[in-house]
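General statements about sequence and structure are easier to judge against a single worked case. For one protein, we set the task of working out the structure tokens from the amino acid sequence alone. This step matters because it turns folding into a mapping between discrete strings. The amino acid sequence and the backbone structure tokens for this protein are reproduced below.
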Amino acid sequence: MRTDVHARLQDDIVSGVFSPGDPLVEVALADRYKVSRTPIREALRKLQADGLVEQFARGYRVSQNSPQDILDLYDVRIALEQVAAQSAAERRTPYDLARLGRAHQALVDAVAAGDSVSASSACAHAFHADLWEATHNKTLISSLESLERRITAFSSSTLDSPGRGESIVAEHAGIIEAVAAGDAELAGTLAREHMARSRDIRLALYAEYAEGMPTRR
């Protein structure tokens, strides 16, 4: 039950049910998830350790990420994505390549059909998850999954930027080709450039969001 509460609250934060800065009141959460306050308190502590929740004067709230937080997260994400792409190029199996191909095609179809940002984002996330799996490195996969949860909890998706869907499709295609060819250096370079573009777009979207966000006390 306690693990379930943690997962449900995490999903609600990542999916935007709770927005950055929203207070997370134990009594209200206990009522929402139909549990006592003890598992709620434990879930909040775990989410604080993950960076999704922060403490403030009156308890807990969804983390409010600053531009520096975004830069810090992406510095690590860019480095690890480069390592992941390089490792995938060296270790991928035919099954891994098939999974990557299916994930990529799902994104191609979603973008071409004009699907919602959330649907296209899910396809993009699936591609990266399959790329990580192709490394066959559990520690690397776990680290990237943790970073992904924190980045996904931001107030917007890079796919909110006009034309980003098409550019992601092209960038992913290049990464797949390099991984399939076993070109670790090229795969790593393309992955690094891909995530650097995402970082820059994320910062621009944050600036737009911050301008329209009411001041919180």
Notes: The chain has two domains: 2-62, 67-212. The chain has nine helices and three strands. The two ends are 34 Å apart (CA to CA).
